[in-house]
Amino acid sequence: MCRPDETEEGVIPEDDHLQYMLGCLSDEELEIAARTSYQYAKEGGNEEVRDKHAMAMARRYLKSKKNVDKALDYMKATIQFRSDMKIDRLRTVFDGKDLGHHQDEEKTPTSDDEDVDSNPNVDTEKFASQLESRLSSKKNFVMGYDKEGRATFHFIPRCTQHHDLEWTMLESIYTMERAIACSERRRGDGSINAMIDCAGLKQWAHTPPMNVGKYFLKTLRRHYIGHIQKIFILDAPLGFAWLWKILSPFVGTATRNKIVFLSGTDEKMSYLSGPQCYYEESEAAPWMLESGKKDRELDMQEYLYRTPFDRAFDDA
Q1: Alpha-carbon distances of 65 from 59, 71, 92, rounded to whole Å
Q2: In this protein, which residues make up the domain named CRAL-TRIO (predicted)?
């Protein structure tokens, strides 16, 4: 595929850059790029529809990286990442399962467990059971939308039970993909907010090993370009400043600029529901806003087995 030519003014139109990026991808890569859209992955479509969704991914990467070659390199790396992580299987792992199928299985995955994701011979039921076990800690889930229809990825570190690189990544990516799918259904794009509730966080028990934290942040930075709108870190303890100093270089400047630290009832109320009004009371948990109405206890069986992947828990 030839590089696009400059105009007389020395400017290359964005559409030419995007067409060039798509032209550098194989049919298999285009399909994986298109399937970053859960809507396309679920419904499929002809080549024109495929290319439309692949171009949406290319546009996010070009907007972020400003340089077409750099954007293409990052896009290809993400396509490979999604293939390696078997994102399609991850998004559909609970589809068609009987309610409570895994309830009696108490095995919790550890670093010594069989490498489920990289071994194609491991039974999908075992994978679903182990992922459910991780998610059942209620540390990661999707609930509520901001006033513009962005889904909210809830992360509650105090609910951490086990630190393990593979499974920490899998439960986090499952939740990220689900939040993106919910936003896509509501607003047509996949931009989301992350809400991190640090109340009760104990560094020695709840913070992940450095390799886990760094790998997650690198994954967010490299493979979820253009999806994060805001990251709200609520009620962080004093000791969090030390952890943040170590991890922040791995976040990236653009993402760091989207992070907001809020502490205490008044500050959260003023920022989240004040003049900017990010959240209506009906879509906020009580730990986000004192008057928040999203107070149903998370029912993991309902969330995983009875709620479609592109719906948040307690979706209106």
Answers
A1: 10, 5, 31
A2: 130-297
* Whether 52 and 132 share a structural domain: no
Domain boundaries, position 45? 14-84
pLDDT in tens, 166-202: 999 999 999 999 999 999 999 999 999 999 998 887 7
Number of structural domains found in the chain: 2
Same domain, 74 and 215: no
* 57 and 140 part of one domain: no
Phi, psi for residue 264 in degrees, rounded to 5: 85, 155
107: pLDDT strictly greater than 80: no
The tens digit of pLDDT for each residue in 51-101 reads 999 999 999 999 999 999 999 999 999 999 999 999 999 999 999 765 444
Q: Is 10 helix (H, G, I), strand (E, B) or coil?
A: coil
Nearest one of 217, 230, 216, 290 to 258, comparing CA atoms: 230
One-letter amino acid of 162: H
Do 238 and 183 lie in one domain? The reply is: yes
pLDDT by residue (tens digit) across 34-65? 999 999 999 999 999 999 999 999 999 999 99
